[in-house]
Specification:
The structure holds two protein chains of two kinds. By secondary structure, chain A is an alpha+beta fold. Chain A contains 13 helices and 13 strands. Chain B is elongated and about 65 Å long. The chains are: A alpha+beta, B mainly alpha.
């Protein structure tokens, strides 16, 4: 049996460890290849998404692949879908083979494996900084460093990127089911059941945070579908996301992938690796240690302390899984909310349940509560927002962590807002569980179900970052986002 | 404690708010097929020049064939509505959705009635329309229309705004579906709502709506087969 490639933690490697150095050399070589070459840097990035006219590496005289080839291989990224994790696993695997083959061609080792960026490592105070090689001004020897991308909003000065909530993995790893409930309930670990999807539908927990948060926190090329793959850190970021899938599966025996044949075999995805065209179905990639993948991660241990959540929350989740309830909407905003970089609010009038949630209450089944954010559309540079519930007027959000519901990363909002052959243009959806928050609020004498206030607080830029400097130089909003509806569900 | 049978039925209905819309569709299929089985082809030809009869058939055909294609949208409407107004919301959505189909059908059947084509030429027209539908199936515009059929939109929770939003959502999807499936439906109407043709057309619609990934060339091929069959009928 062939030995497994081991994908290593980039932060546990020396700055220019051979793994990192050969990665940089391979990128230089791949960037010299023509865009129509499947083993070129730009081709690999275009597999995720591509926008003609918005390619920062476009050259005069570029000859793109044929329309037929573009349709088969480009703009294929699966988001807001249960295919999000397996598709990106296939994508990274083929990319790794191409990089590895390029490294061999350059005289390097044959066992190169893509490292990962573990920004959530609680034992590493620098985890949220880019690994040093990714913001070094030059490579050893003084040549230009391809790992440094000027177009990043945070990280290039070595500063901490985002905040602790951006890299939170408690939320996603605590999920007990893979597939989301499409009717307003649990978003699931892996996302909702969809057909071959290219941006439509609700967002799974892992895809939202830390995946979406870190795309937007780093920003620049990483902040948009069509340029994300051009930033070398993209691949280490997704390597970490892929690792978290293994971590989730291993941390609890009941954390299982969907058994549905539609997920396992319903769609065939086409790629190029170093040998040519390859096709995968999901069932071929569910085990990263099995052929054809045959890789593992340096650390797939459970990073969460036990018990992972307050006993009440865990018991609630377990009960919910054993007897799945039917979510019931009990209130929603009457109109959309516009976000342009300043705090904003939505108001929900909460009604008493009359359907499944009432029946569950009569059976004394513990209730879970979810906030749904539907049809989020917009344009401009994506910006993360934190959500708080019933924040006291005039108070600082940071003083009320007990009212913090979660983040809306907004990654993919602009792309999902455009209607074309692949996108219905309905925008993005998120779900945040607020069971504990609402239980606390309802027990308070000030609780007023007629006015549940949901606050959207823009996340501040990291100190010393390009984003922070830009905000000072040009305080005008650089985006406009419409949250079509904010609704409350009991499940 | 195990659920009672009635509680299980109740949960099944809760989980499938689209049940009565599908029931309407099934009833429409029965209404369309039963008269054909009972009265034969000759009776159908006699009603060709009667616009009202044609419009009635178009209406039944729209309900029969299009409602199964909007199950996901009906579920979305139900999920995004307060429980007490779920069925009301679905009704408002279907009014908007079917309203557009009936409007289109009214114009089409009027045109067909006024044209009063020679019955012998009808198979040629059916063949031509299905050939056109096959070609349309392969265009970017068709894919855009199909993508439009998967749209969702926010719905207000209560009041006239909620009714308007549901109605508008129905109209939005109706527009997309008309663009996507209108040519095929026109072919079915010109083919005197033949059960076999309707079944083929329904199959195409259901496959492209619910398959995990669709190869439009296969579906276009099925439509070409229908076109060729009618062309052969015209010739022989």
């Amino acid at each position: 049996m062939a030995s497994l490639r081991v994908r290593k933690d980039a932060w546990k490697l020396a700055t220019w460890d051979p793994t990192i150095l050969w990665y940089a050399k391979a990128i230089n070589e791949m960037r010299n290849r023509k865009v129509a070459n499947p083993m070129s840097w730009r081709y690999q990035a275009a597999i995720h998404d591509y926008a003609l006219g918005a390619d920062p590496l476009a050259q005069p005289g570029d000859v793109l692949p044929s329309q037929g080839e573009q349709k088969q291989f480009w703009r294929q990224c699966q988001h807001f879908s249960w295919y999000f994790l397996p598709w990106h696993r296939m994508y990274l695997f083929c990319f790794e083979r191409i990089v590895s083959a390029t490294i061999v061609q350059l005289g390097g080792p044959a066992d190169w494996a893509l490292p990962y960026w573990n920004y959530s490592d609680a034992n590493n105070p620098d985890a949220r900084r880019l690994p040093p090689a990714f913001h070094a001004q030059s490579m050893p020897g003084g040549s230009q460093n391809p790992l440094l991308v000027a177009d990043r909003d945070e990280g290039n000065s070595g500063e901490l990127i985002g905040d602790a909530n951006d890299v939170d993995i408690v939320g996603c790893l605590s999920e007990l089911i893979y597939t989301a409930n499409l009717s307003g309930g649990d978003p699931g670990f892996g996302g909702p059941k969809t057909a071959f999807n290219h941006s439509r539908g609700s967002t799974g927990s892992l895809e939202a945070t830390p995946h979406g948060n870190m795309h937007i926190a780093v920003g620049g090329w990483m902040g948009a579908f069509n340029t994300a793959g051009l930033d070398p850190i993209f691949w280490l970021h997704h390597s970490n996301i892929d690792r978290l899938w293994n971590v989730w599966r291993k941390r609890r025996s009941k954390n299982v992938n969907p058994p549905d044949s539609q997920w396992l075999k319903g769609v065939t995805f086409d790629f190029h690796d170093d040998a040519g065209i390859v096709s995968f179905t999901v069932d071929q990639v569910v085990d990263s240690t099995a052929a054809p993948l045959q890789y593992s991660y340096q650390d797939e241990s459970d990073p969460l302390p036990a018990p992972l959540a307050a006993p009440t929350a865990e018991a609630l989740r377990s009960l919910a899984i054993s007897s799945p309830s039917i979510p019931e909407m009990v209130g929603a905003s009457q109109k959309s909310v516009t976000l342009t970089g300043a705090p904003a609010q939505a108001h929900i009038q909460v009604q008493s349940p009359v359907g499944p949630a009432l029946a569950s209450a009569q059976r004394t089944t513990p209730r879970r509560t979810f906030l749904n954010f539907q049809n989020i559309t917009g344009s401009g540079k994506a910006r993360r927002y934190s959500v708080y519930v019933n924040l006291p007027a005039g108070s600082m959000p940071v003083d009320h962590p007990e009212l913090y519901a979660g983040d809306l990363p907004m990654f993919g909002v602009a792309e999902s807002s455009r209607a074309d052959e692949n996108h219905p243009g309905s925008g993005v959806e998120y779900t945040l569980e607020i069971t504990s928050i609402l239980a606390t609020l309802e027990s308070s004498p000030q609780w007023n179900p007629a006015n549940l206030q949901v606050s959207f607080i823009p996340k501040p830029p990291a100190a010393g970052s390009v984003r922070a400097l830009r905000a000072i130089a040009s305080p005008a909003p650089d985006h406009e986002i419409q949250v079509g509806s904010v609704s409350l569900y009991y499940a | 404690m195990a659920e009672t049978t009635s509680a299980q039925w109740r949960r099944a209905i809760w989980r499938h708010p689209e049940w009565w819309a599908l029931g309407l569709s099934g009833a429409a299929w029965v209404a369309m097929i039963a008269p054909i089985a009972g009265h034969g082809h000759h009776h159908m030809e006699g009603r060709w020049s009667t616009w009202v009869g044609e419009f009635q058939h178009w209406s039944l055909m729209s309900i029969a064939m299009m409602l199964p294609l909007v199950v996901d949208a009906v579920r979305t409407v139900a999920a995004r509505s307060l429980w007490s107004r779920r069925d009301h919301a679905i009704c408002a959505f279907l009014f908007g959705y079917l309203g557009l189909w009936l409007l289109a059908g009214g114009l089409l059947t009027l045109t067909l009635t006024l044209a009063s084509a020679d019955a012998g030429l009808r198979p040629i027209f059916v063949a031509a329309v299905f050939a056109l539908a096959a070609g349309w199936q392969l265009t970017p515009a068709k894919r855009l229309a199909l993508s439009w059929c998967h749209r969702t939109q926010p719905l207000a929770p209560r009041g006239w705004r909620a009714d308007c939003d549901c109605f508008r959502y129905g109209c939005t999807l109706g527009l997309g579906c008309l663009a996507s499936c209108g040519i095929v439906m026109a072919g079915c109407a010109i083919a005197n709502h033949s059960a076999l043709v309707m079944s083929c057309a329904s199959s195409v619609g259901i496959v492209e709506r619910y398959s995990a990934r669709v190869d439009q060339r296969l579906l276009a091929g099925l439509l070409v087969i229908v076109a060729v069959a009618f062309a052969g009928k015209a010739v022989f």
